[in-house]
Amino acid sequence: MTRWHRLWTIWLLTRNLEVVIHALRMRHVTTVYEFVISGGHLRPMGLHTRIEWKGMEFEMLSHQLWALASLKSMAEHGWLLTRLDTDRYLVALPSGDTFIVYRDTMASDLMVLHERFIEDEYGRVDVSNHLVLDIGANIGDSAIYFARMGAEVHAFEPFRQLYQRLSGNVERNHLGQQIYCHQIGIGVCSGTTKGIYNRQESLSSAVSSTVSDNLHDIPSELETVQLVSLSEALTIARLSQAS
């Protein structure tokens, strides 16, 4: 089926020109097509799109509809997504683990959770009874995955909002005795530097000496972050083990 046939099908099923335009402009035609023919409903609301799927209702940024593929797969694997308030959602895995994700970072949050717990990207790595350093721990997806595999995890996340989400998800899953969260980043050497916190795609947040040149390109904020070297991070982890 050609792209134009898919667009026509999207129009027939949604009767919403905005959905068709979003799919075409953002190059998500196949993803949106597969979503709507499976019974999903989309309603653009300007910057965000309201999504209805398998009894779940939520919103995500309209330009991030590529995440619909992850959402569809999650529903098929028995995951549940529940709205808590205007900005926060609870993702419940069949295993019993839960994560808080946010409306404006929904796409990247769902993607990393899908990679960890459905695609099982790290499944070939035996971490049982090992010490794991999770560098750039984001919302805690990898840290919690490794902890469930039997590792002691030290999760390093320098950005304030991401650190709060990381530590919140660790606490929510009662893993505070197995995952140690540190609000610092890992760099070539220790010190402070500037970093970009991307408010819409947490995976794009980065520490760089040239971040000020890029701020106009993304919805971001400049944040001063603390760094330690890898050897210092290992020392922090080993001292925690000793205590």
TrEMBL record:
Xref: Pfam families: Methyltransf_21
Gene3D superfamilies linked to this entry: Vaccinia Virus protein VP39 (3.40.50.150)
InterPro entries xref list: FkbM_mtfrase, SAM-dependent_MTase, SAM-dependent_MTases_sf
Domain Methyltransferase FkbM: 134-231
Protein name: Methyltransferase FkbM domain-containing protein
Annotated source species: Sulfobacillus benefaciens
